[in-house]
Structure formats: structure tokens, C-alpha cells
Amino acid sequence: MKTGRIYILIMAAAAASLMLCRPGKNPGTAASDERLKAILEKRDDSAGWEDREKFEKEFEKEFAAVLRRRESFADSFPGLPVSCARSTDGALRVITWNTTLGGTWIDLAGIVQWVDGAGKLNVQLLEDKSADPGSTAFTARNGWIGAVYSEIHPLVVLNQKCYLALGWTTWGNGTETRVAEVFEPRGGEMLIGKPIFRFEGGIQNRLLFVYGRMETMDLEYDAEKRLLTFDNLAEPPSDPDMESPPGLPGPDGTVRIMHFTEGLFEEIK
Fold it and tell me: Which residues is 156 bridged to in the sheet?
């Protein structure tokens, strides 16, 4: 469960990802869209948390069933309050939405849909475990932290095709977070997180950049040059005459660059 500004900000942060979904309405899924919208209306009109949770689970089950149909892969679901990011090779997409179960807090759920090398369509539900007590989702080899994605690029790591996903999320406390992580299809399952980022003295499964919510941070990948570029974050200097703690991190005007080579992202000094 995540706190933040109203959900429209999630949709704004993912505006680029919406452009990656193929436009148009597939007639084969129109009826399913109406059923999905009806379920969401019941969820949002329910006063009790248990009823809202029941309808959210019903929506997830029905949505997953729709996405298992081959024709759904061309549908952008414009009538649903979801964010969709499609990989640049068109073979994978991640769909996320706010469950509204957190009230004024943001609570994300998602589904990843992809076509494997054999041409089979696969679907996997994504459950955000980052708020669970003792969660290792932030650092785990396979754990989803709940994010809205704006860019997804194919990579090859040790002859294994996977995807670099860049996104955004928030955990409250006046902060927002940019995310760089890997989706790796393997045997009909999607693993999330992969140790390919050599950064800050170690190899990490994902990169998380936390900054003050009043700041903005750029995080981009140039697939042709294989360069991951992002703003360097720094805490503002503290004032010894002030009793309040220093402000939250923000870009300091410099840029850091990581180069993808031999299966690793390594920083260029």
C-alpha cells in the first residue's frame, strides 16, 4: 500500500507508457470490457473494505481471463482506468492499476502479458509485496514492488532474452521513486529483478532512486547506444542554525550514465 497524490498523477507519470499500447478497440473484447467496468463500478460503490476487496479480486480474475485470449494482445483497453506499457519489440506489456483499496493511499496491482519464443501467449498476475512486514521485495531476485512503467526495452543477458523496465512508484513520507528493473521470461513464468546493475559498490537486482515529491527526476535508456542515463540525487545542505532536518534528495544538476555491456550495467566514470 503506497501513499501519494491522487491517482491521476500515476496516469500522468505513465503517459508515455499509454502511447506504447496499440490504439483502437478490438471488437472481440468489447463485451469483456463492459463486464470489467461493471465490476469496478461495484468495487468503487462499495462502502465496506471487504466488499471492495471481493470485487477487486473478481476484477483481477476476469481481467486475467480476458488477457489470456490472443485477440486481447492488440487491445489498449481505453475504457478502463489502467496504465499499459508495451516493450519496444511489441512482445511484452505490463498493465497496472490502482486497486483503490488503500483509500487515499495508492495500492497497485498489475498483470504482465507476453509472447514467448514459441509464439505462446502468457499471462501472470503481479502482486505488490513491498508493504508486507519483513518484505525483501526491494532487493529480491524475484519480487514486484508495485510500479507504473513508462519504458520497456528488450535485452539479452547470457543468451537469455529479458526486458529492462523503467518506471515510477511512491512509498509516502513525501517521496517518490524511479525504478529500473528487469522482467525475465523463463519457462512460462515471469521473474522480476535480475542482478545486472553494478552500482554503488555491489551488483543489484534493481535500481531505486528516492527523491522529494516536489522534485522531478529523469531516467532514460538509449537502446542504440545501450546507455542508462539518470539525474544524480543529493540531499540539500543542512543549515546548522536550523533545528529541522535537511530536505529530501533531489537532482543536483549532474547526470550519471551506465553502459550495458557483457550482461551488466556498469557506471561510466
Answer: 161
- The Cα–Cα gap between 36 and 22 comes to 19
Cβ-based burial of 155 (10 A; exposed 0-12, middle 13-18, buried ≥19)? buried
Closest CA to 217 of 200, 234, 237: 234
Place of cell 529479458: 162
Q: How high is the pLDDT of residue 140?
A: 72
Q: What are phi and psi of 18, to 5 degrees?
A: -65, -30
- CA–CA gap between residue 203 and residue 267 (Å, rounded): 12
**What integer is the mean pLDDT of 127-135?**
70
DSSP 212-229: ETTS---EEEETTTTEEE
CA–CA separation, 132 and 130 (whole Å): 6
What are residue 127's DSSP bridge partners?
109
pTM, full prediction = 0.85
Residue pair 161/229 in contact by the 8 Å Cβ criterion:
no
Cell numbers 516493450 correspond to what residue? 87
CA-based nearest residue to 113, from 128, 93, 87, 127: 93
| pLDDT tops 90 at residue 57 | yes
End-to-end CA distance of the chain: 37
Cα angle 82, 214, 98 (rounded to 5 degrees) comes to 20
pLDDT band at 125 (very low <50, low <70, confident <90, very high): very high
Q: Compute CA distances 143 → 11, 36, 49, 131, 206, whole Å.
A: 23, 27, 26, 12, 10
Distance separating alpha carbons of residues 240 and 245, to the nearest angstrom: 10
The CA-CA-CA angle for residues 35, 36, 40, to 5°, reads 120
Grid cell at residue 64:
486475467
Handedness of CA 56, 58, 63, 64 (dihedral sign): positive
